């Protein structure tokens, strides 16, 4: 397992002409600091076995004034003084967001091996657009996984909005002979308490989801936020490369992954 933290080791996945890129990492993982649209073009071809990510939804409202609120205002009821930092890239309108998604997904596909799975978190508002973007970028759309959050704010006379979704597909044909078992189509996990990131996903959910990747493979998360996917991948025995543009989350995510893995290592002794 390479450390992915030194220049000569990072060069296994990134074109050397683009180095140095600010990064932080350790044994089998690294988080790159910068804009996904720029960094993703620096990857070598066919170096990732899976793409699993939670991109900015650019959702949380119908009117421009609602969409242009801060991410804490849109996705959290916490007091701003106690809320996690806001994150970048969540203020696009639907057409701009769809174009942006298609653009980075196109470049990401070139960095993924044939047959590599792709898993993208999304809410109901942007579900139609993300399936368009995925297919425009050349991926095969294969279905939808449901994340049942089990709780939600009740609204009389309406269905509860207690689910988010994982749109998934593959980079071309996906042989059933891959050494991967049958995964559930519905995951039931409550939102994590004491979140580091305002839209943080449960760690156990991500540990279950990364198992779509072939054993020991290398997983890319272009929007790694608090580092949950990177951490889940390492805990399940995968290599992981994340990208994060927001300064606060680049530091928070890197520290979180490092401390969690160090704690696990100490416990295992």
Automatic annotation (TrEMBL):
GO terms for biological process: DNA restriction-modification system; methylation. Keywords: Methyltransferase, Restriction system, Transferase. Its EC number is 2.1.1.-. Residues 49-171, 192-252 form the DNA methylase N-4/N-6 domain. Residues 59-92 are annotated as: Disordered. GO terms for molecular function: DNA binding; N-methyltransferase activity. Belongs to the N(4)/N(6)-methyltransferase family. This is Methyltransferase.
